[in-house]
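Model: You mentioned two targets. I'll fold them one after the other.
Researcher: Yes, keep them separate.
Model: Target one:
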Amino acid sequence: MIYFMLLETEEDRKKFQEIYEDNYLKMYHVARAMGQNQTDAENEVHNSFLSLAENFTKYSHFYFI
């Protein structure tokens, strides 16, 4: 995943991957339900995960594994 390049540690990569796998489809379906076409929905989800990866150290403690 491109997001992994933005994460500093293997632990962060594992946490991020779990968050990604748990939430990608949910986020995609929400974007589609809001009326976005497939491409726009995929782009919005990608941008959301990109932002999370860029700021992962700030937000990773909110996700309890």
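Model: Target two:
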Amino acid sequence: MYDKVKRYIERYNMIRQSEHVIAGLSGGADSVCLLFMLKRFLHEQSGEEYRSRLTAVHVHHGIRGEEAGRDMEFVKRLCEQEGVGLVIRFFDVPEYSREHRISCEEAGRLLRYQVMGELAAERGNNTKIAVAHNSNDNAETVLHNLSRGTGLKGLGGIAPLNGSIVRPLLCLERKEIENYLADNKISYIIDSTNLETEYTRNRIRLHVLSVLQQEINPKCVEHIRNASENVREAEEFLEKITNQMYEKVIYTDNNCICIKKEELHPMDIYIKKRIIRQAVGRIAGGLKDITVSHIKDVLELMTGEPGKYIYLPGGIIVRNDYNRLILEHKESVDKRNEQIYVHGKTMILKPGIYRLEGYEYCFEVSEFYLDSEEEAVKFLKNCIKKQKNLYTKCFDYDKMKFAVQLRYRMSGDFLTIDSRGSHKKLKSYFVDEKIPQKDRGRIPLLADGNHIIWVVGGRISEDYKITESTRHVLKIERKDII
């Protein structure tokens, strides 16, 4: 079995000559097997010098009481017996899990990697971190990812090599490891938590994978391992293609990531999704809470009307411009909204104070909800009483289709002038109202695309008026600039 592990290490070039190896050692069957495999491999590489190239790390989690102390003492004796250097660290894992609002299982994993990462950093770049994941762990991971919903990356399971982290035992099944230890009369300890079903992975191991092996196919772990290797290879290839295509369609502009729609549109749908996902990840600093449905929403936005926008988790706003998609942090939008002049056009993304270039007033925007028809009727009557106020208006927010803007006139602008839906060009409205041509370009407008919601100081479009069915209200009031 050692030869199998050796070939696996060499296949992925996991451990080079003279590299130091830091190995996680819990005392369980997997980690004990890993220690003996590494010891032999490093001895073959550098003879007795292997002793200076191998360090074991044990983390005492502060749980399981006497059992944890037993594990630590076992590890101490084993390393002393085998002549391997040992580092022990103590943590209060339950407290860490409460503080960071994660499970004890996840907290323990993070702290183990933290310790090994710190030791590797002390020794420099010429260091590898070896952990004892096996084929069964990989199968459990694939099944777990599949049940939660995943893409190719999740179906690829556990990677044999991830930066400085190596997993030499991924080629072995758990039964092979246990047989090897028994044949060589090597003792190990059993962690009682491996039999508890409160952990998701344990439930998969005890109630799913065991059934697959016993009742479907005894070689299912091997088949899952082979499939995940194929998926990882496919993912690596697709990642190269995605990166090449990404450079062709993406550019940055004033803290925004922009996607050229004309370049992205003819590409295969799968590559489109990967490019969008990568762009979202870069602007957000990660893909936490980003799902397949969010990527589909962005694709749908791209084929919709210009001016529309959507929010994504992490405070990301995606806007559909005429020839591009624009991805940016909500914080960046907020900062722009704080500016006095914004190129004669300001997008309203939230309540606040908005200003237009060259206009001597500002606009205070607020929104609120009406809980019932009775409340809506009462609010409507109040609006009718105050309709003579030319500079404070309320609108039905739910009727607005695109990104609402405060701006000046543009070609194609129109209003809805009656309940039948009749339209009138903005130019015609200005003529009818006898507004001098020299003043028309400086009158602020509240716009929904080219549909004018409100000519500030003048009329509002019939389509956006408050009715008895209104529930979401947008209120805009003109005020003096302080």
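Researcher: Noted. Anything on target two?
Model: Residues 336-343 have pLDDT under 50 and may be disordered.
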